[in-house]
Amino acid sequence: MKAGKTARYVDLRKDFPFFAFEEFSVEIESDEIRAEFLFNLSGRFFFRPDLRIPLRPWFIQENMHESILRQLFFHIGMIELISYWKAACSPRVIIRPYNLDASQVRWWKTIYHHGLGEFFYTNGLQPGMEDFMEIVPESGNESEKVSFRNSPGYLVPVGGGKDSAVSLEVLKGYNHSVIPFVMNPNAAMEGTILASGGSMHNSVVVYRSIDPKLLELNAKGFLNGHTPFSALLAFNSLLGASLAGTSHIALSNESSANEPTIPGTHINHQYSKSFHFEAAFRSYIADYISSDVSYFSLLRPLNELQIARIFAEKKPYHDVFRSCNKGSKTGSWCRKCPKCLFTWIILMPFLGNDALIKMFGGDLMEDLSLRPLLDQLTGMAREKPFECVGTIDEVNVSLVYGIRKYGKPLPPLLRYYRDSDMYRKYENADMDLFLNVLHPEHFVDEDALMMIKSELP
User: Fold this and answer.
1) C-alpha triplet 92, 98, 103: angle, nearest 5°
2) Which of 152, 208, 339, 450 is the most buried (most CB within 10 A)?
3) What is the distance between the alpha carbons of residues 418 and 410, in angstroms, rounded to a whole number?
4) What is the DSSP string of 279-326?
């Protein structure tokens, strides 16, 4: 299959030699801001995705100036195009709305190459950083930095999982505004915002559409796969911070997101959640967009065990959060995917079995069909799941402590793990080494760091 995909990759690049970001438009209507992008696949297919942002009376009018919105939406278009470019992986990418200097071209190539790590791997591709594409700016229009009017508030992207819920709770202790940000909201996102004491009308909401032509091409055998959604979210959250007038964007990516998941590389499949991307994005926006907004992950000093311990005490969120990608649209847990299994495991040391069964609607530890996923999560298999899950150490320590908490008799899946070599490797692990140490790589300021520390044991 992968050999066939490699041949398909070569053929598509020959048949579709260029991909162009032609233009984009921005309109402020009576009730929303709307932007539309035009992408051109070698003159044979044209895509017109759009974004809509409902207007709020509290949006900062000065930050809705045309020059600011065009700067922000141009960069959203630059990251949006990757979803369409990957269909044929054209070797030449032409940028027509604005010029990019040599440093910007290198930055974007790095984001595309690392951000498509899972896409390349699952399609059996190994393109080099230099030759997988050429970015060619063809505009004399310079994109200039802009200034925002803002105040010391926090925009918090909410995904509906446990992490963003913890961020909202940590920031409650601050004497600054905390404004949720959501893209294509679902029940878990809305439930999380309501549980935090907020409302959708006091949130920045973005509705993103995908051009149906892309789905048609995928159905016809064009290339498909994972794209760096968190990078797309980063540029959209910058727009959200401008509209809301907040000086900070507080992400909820933890230190565990840095562990590699692409075999043979140092790249996490969700590269745009890593500390490396966070640092690169901060530098890019300061150099090319605006110095008025600080982008950082509030939870970067923490690991998954620390976050799970904090979340276990936040009971208002237990019935509304969802970390299952398959069930996100229906507000359910599928109980069959790596995310469901990981979430159960990481909460197991801190919540009783009855609470977990109530939360998930069933007992995952009774399901032996989950053994292959357990092998992946614990490191007994060669590959980690291509999902946002904790490190191998965190999963194994959580299972060991979960077994201690569970007592006897153990359910089938825990018996399977207890009888493994991996259990014997970790059975004497000390969880305090995970719960009491903060990761040193982060951009969290001292005030916010004190708020985080106050949540730890």
Assistant:
1) 70
2) 339
3) 9
4) HHHHHHHHHHT-SS-EEEETTTT--HHHHHHHHHT-GGGTTT----TT
At 266 the pLDDT is 53
Q: Is 227 left (phi over 0), alpha (psi -120 to 50) or beta?
A: beta
Checking if the pLDDT of 323 tops 60, the result is: yes
Handedness of CA 214, 220, 222, 228 (dihedral sign): positive
Instruction: Give the CA distances from residue 182 to residues 64, 89, 156, in Å, rounded to whole numbers and listed in that order.
Output: 19, 30, 9
- What are the phi and psi torsion angles at 33 (to 5°)? -100, 135
Tokens matching residue 311: 């979340």
Locus of tokens 């790249």 = 267
- What is the tens place of the pLDDT at every residue in 252-290? 988 765 555 555 555 555 788 889 999 999 999 999 999
Write the pLDDT tens digit of every residue in 342-353: 999 999 999 989
Alpha helices, H only, 116-160: 117-122
Instruction: Please tell me the distance from the alpha carbon of residue 405 to that of residue 287, in angstroms, as a whole number.
Output: 51
Q: What pTM did the predictor assign?
A: 0.93
DSSP string, 228-294: -HHHHHHHHHHHHHHHHTEEEEEE---GGGGS--STTSS--TTGGGSHHHHHHHHHHHHHHT-SS-E
Asked if 353 and 406 count as a contact pair (C-beta separation under 8 A), the reply is yes
